[in-house]
Amino acid sequence: MILTISILLAVAIDFWLGEPRNAYHPLVMFGKWVTAVEKRLLNSRQSAFRQRLTGCVAVLIVLSPCVLYLLVLRSWPPLQTAVDILVLYFCIAARSLQQHALAVLSALLDSDLPLARQQVGRIVSRQTEAMTEADVRRAAIESVLENGADAVFAPLFWFVVLGPFGALLYRFSNTLDAMWGYKNQRYLYFGWAAARFDDLLNWLPARLTALSYALLGNTAQAIKAWRTQAHLLDSPNAGPVMTAGGGALLLLLGGPACYHGQIKPKPWFGGQQLPENDDINRACKLMYRTLLLWLIVIGLGDALA
C-alpha cells in the first residue's frame, strides 16, 4: 500500500499548502531551463525539416532532468519515499486550480468585472480585456475542466504507471508544450515534437478523465457531447475532456474567443444551460469528486495487487 499512501499524502499536502509560489518551484526552474535551451537552439531561418529535427533534440535535452532524477535522487533508499511524495505534490495542482477559479467567482459575485477578467487571465491563454461576465464564467469553467486533466489526473495516472519518474516526465512535457506548442511562425516547426509528445502522454489520461466526468455528472449528456462534439475542438485530448465535462454539468461552453488580437470562431459544446456564477464552484466540485473516485480506484487496485 506504499503507492496509495504516497499518493494520499501528496494530495493532502497539495490541499493543505496549495501550489508553492516561489522561484524554487521545480516548474519555475524548469521553465528557465527551457528558455535557455530555446535561446541556444531555435533558429527560425532554418528549413522546416531542420527546425523539427532541432526541436526533437531540444525536447530530449530539456527532459534530461528526469533521467538525472532517476540516477541521483532515487539512488539513496532512505530518501526515496519522501522524494516520491514531494515529486507528486509538485506535479499536481488541484488546490491551486480551485483557488484560481474561486478568485474569479469572488470577483463576479462582487460585480467587479475588471478584476474578474484579470483573475481569469491567470488561467487561460485567450485575451480577457473585452470579456463579458458570461465569457468570464465560461472561460473559468473550461479551465477547471481542461486543467483538471492536465494538472491533476494525467500526472496522477503516470505516477501510478511509471512512478514519480512518470509524473515528472509528464509534468515537464506538459509545461514544455505550453511554452513551445503554439502553432505560430516562431514555434510551428520547432515546437512540433514537444506538442506531439505531450499529445501522446495525454491521450489515455484525457479519456479516462472524460469518462470520470461523465460517470459523476449527467452521464447521458456527457457521452453524447463527447461522441458528437469532441472532434470539433482543436486539441485531440482537450476535446473529449471539455465536451464530456460540459455535458456532465449540462452547461453550454465554448464559443468565439479572442487570441492574439483576433476572434477565433470556436465551437459551442457541452449542454444547453447558460453558466451561472455558482457553476464555477460546481466545476471545481466535479474535479474534486473525480479525484476522490481516482483515489478509491487506485487504493482498491493497490490492495488487490
From TrEMBL:
Protein's UniProt name: Cobalamin biosynthesis protein CobD
Domain of life: Bacteria
Gene this chain is encoded by: cobD
Parts of the chain that traverse the membrane: 52-73, 152-170
Protein's UniProt keywords contain Transmembrane: yes
Subcellular location per the Swiss-Prot or TrEMBL entry: Cell membrane
Bilayer disposition of the protein: Multi-pass membrane protein
Key word Ion transport present: no
Protein function: Converts cobyric acid to cobinamide by the addition of aminopropanol on the F carboxylic group.
